[in-house]
Structure formats: structure tokens, C-alpha cells
Amino acid sequence: MWTIQFADAVLPGSFTGWGLRSWDLGSLQGIVLGPLLHVSWAHLIGNSAPLLVLGCLVAVEGARRFWAVTAVVALVGGAGTWLVNAPGTLTVGASVLVFGYFGYVVLRVIAPGRIAHRLAYAAIAVIVVVLYGATMLTGILGAAAGVSWQAHLFGAIGGGLMAFSFRRRDSPA
Length: 173
Prior knowledge:
By secondary structure, the chain is mostly helical. The chain has helices at about 1-10, 30-35, 40-60, 65-85, 95-105, 115-140, 150-170; strands at about 20, 90.
């Protein structure tokens, strides 16, 4: 994301046009590319710290799980944003992943397993909610003009779905 933003700053034109444009079948590549693109340095910086922290909390469970969560969050977040946003609205930014990772980390608490793991997940979830909860709620319910509450909401839904998905998969037979 940082390399792309730097290239976008020094090269003519703008990469943001490769983002997700609602109701435009020709922009579906934005489901994958949109989270890598940002409209400004401030936008990128605002997404970077929570993406790093929450992404690491997902990645600690393994690369396979991290990429599965990332893929589903991008797909659910992108599809929901594409469908619910006003036609032609351009959406870019990693916040879809930030909200997805948040949803996953918070809802992972309900996964079955050893009590020690569940207690650790609960402690992590409490810390994450304390650190990011108000920002996440505001990002969905009180998003400023030009901020995609749709990407935030559907990203969180994607993360939650993955927490439930792994819950079933982790269940004893």
C-alpha cells in the first residue's frame, strides 16, 4: 500500500480509478485492488496502524487462516459495498480489511477450544474493543461524508462470518 501510494504520488495520473465503483461491472477488480489504494497520505496513515495491529492478531493464527480471512473480508466487504453504495460511487482504502479483522478478532471469542485459548481470545477482544471499539462504531454509524460506512459494515460482516466459519470447522466431531 505504501509503495502504491508513493508511485501514485510521483507518477502522472492516479491509481485510485482502479478502486471499486458501485454497480459498475467493469470495476470489480476493485474488490481486490481497492484495499491497496488510498486517496491521500493521511488516508493511508490512518489505516496503517490498525491494519498492522489487527492484521497481526489474525496472522498469529497462521498464514493460511490469515489469507482466508483476508480473502473473505475483501469479497464480502467489496460485494456489499458494490451493491449498497449509490451507483458510480468510488470506494478505496484498507479500512474494509481493518473492520474485517476487527470483526474477526472480536467474534473469535466464541470459537470452541481449550478454555485457555478462549480466555486468551476474550482478553484480546476486550483490549481490541477498548482500543478501537468507538472508532469502529463511529466508522459505521457516524461516518463522515466521503467515508464508506458500507465498506466498514460489510468488512466487519465478512470478518464475523469467518469467525463463525472457523468456529464450525474447529468444533469437535
